[in-house]
Design brief:
It is built from six helices and eleven strands. The chain is α/β, with parallel strands linked by helices. The chain has one domain: Class I glutamine amidotransferase (GATase) domain (Rossmann fold), CATH 3.40.50.880. It has a seven-stranded mixed sheet, with helices on both faces. Strands 3-4 form a two-stranded antiparallel sheet. A hairpin with a 1-residue loop joins strand 9 and strand 10. It is globular, with a radius of gyration of 15 Å. The relative contact order is 0.16.
């Protein structure tokens, strides 16, 4: 279960896919830093991931590290994401089943929805994608106006915050104990 590791920092796993936005991919490190949190970039296959923006990042860990994390961040894509690979949905479900906190930014909400983790829950995404989210996942209660929605251990956000302002509700939603609320900021 999350938190069982003794004397270990809170592990935040960041799902790294070729379509991920470089801006949203960097937000967990910028916001959370490495002093209090161990941040692991995870991909279906560990190694260099070339993003559609032509940036390359090193995802040193596979999905097993994501499954073992205290918090999993699913960054958004530049566009609406395609359905995730089955291995990704399996890893997200396994992380959720063991009590990990799941955070999505922007279109990353679609990845959680495709994994079945938002069924019957409130969620938010970028305003330009809210109608698509409603159409593709009618059992998700989409709140296009909330910047962040926290429903139990899952916290979708409209977008990743800019680093100077990211110490507020996004960081709290990322690492706080589970609760069901809607954040005003």
């Amino acid at each position: 279960m999350p938190g069982e590791r003794r004397n270990a920092r809170h592990l935040v796993a960041v799902l790294t896919r070729p379509t991920t936005s470089i801006v949203e991919l960097g937000t967990p490190v910028e916001c959370l830093g490495r002093q209090r949190y161990a941040i692991a970039y995870c991909a279906s296959a560990p190694g260099r991931v070339t993003l559609t923006s032509d940036f390359s990042v090193e995802a040193a860990h596979g999905l097993d590290r994501l499954t073992a994390a205290d918090t999993v961040v699913v960054p958004g894509d530049r566009e609406q994401p395609l359905d995730p690979q089955p291995a990704i949905t399996h890893a997200l479900r396994a992380a959720a089943a063991r009590g990990a906190r799941l955070v999505a930014t922007g279109s990353g909400t679609f990845v959680l929805a495709a994994a079945g983790l938002l069924t019957g829950r409130r969620a938010t995404t970028r305003p330009d994608l809210a109608d698509d989210l409603r159409r593709r996942f009618p059992r998700v209660r989409v709140d296009a106006f909330a910047p962040t929605v926290t429903d139990g251990s899952i916290a979708p956000a409209r977008a990743a915050p800019a680093p100077p302002s990211c110490s507020g509700s996004w960081c709290a939603a990322t690492t706080a104990p589970a609760r069901a609320t809607s954040s005003p900021t």
